[in-house]
Design brief:
Blueprint: H1 7-23, H2 48-60, H3 73-85, H4 96-104, H5 107-110
Helix pairs in contact: 2-4
Length: 145
């Protein structure tokens, strides 16, 4: 009969456990082949005509934001304000024709009577609700009793 050590069964059992554990070791997670990853939407591209329109609206006092070339809600509101103040159809859309009118308008003739509030600016008492007088503008005439 061959000589067997008392350790032999324990060594074989330990080797088997180690082999099982090695096969069960956590693997690096691989992305699923059909899974889509989230990517934020690309920033809108700056439009040179919109940027020029914004620059003119800032010069004339209809817009207080920086000219970034992106047509957003504040730019549309400023365009509509200019269009309404000058008797144009107020569609809020920039165009070469509008840009030409903006460039031909002098700052003194274009200063709006009221502009949209910025931040938490308090409204002037006689101003329409939610609107404030532009900086340096004369107060509106008092309403007759």
């Amino acid at each position: 009969m061959p000589f067997r050590s008392a350790r032999a069964p324990r060594c074989l059992a330990a080797a088997a456990v180690l082999a099982l554990l090695a096969g069960c070791a956590p693997q690096a997670q691989k992305p699923m082949p059909n899974a889509t990853t989230y990517a934020p939407p690309p920033a809108p591209a700056a439009d040179p005509m919109v940027r020029a329109t914004q620059t003119e609206l800032i010069r004339l006092g209809f817009l207080r934001d920086a000219a970034d070339g992106v047509l957003g809600p504040r730019t549309r509101a400023a365009i509509q304000g200019y269009q309404q103040a000058n008797g144009l159809p107020a569609d809020g859309q920039p165009s070469q024709r509008l840009l030409g009118r903006l460039k031909a308008t002098t700052a003194a003739a274009a200063t709006p009577a009221w502009v949209a509030p910025v931040g938490n600016a308090p409204a002037a008492p006689a101003a329409p609700t939610g609107w404030v007088a532009p900086v340096g503008a004369a107060p509106p005439p008092a309403a007759a009793p």
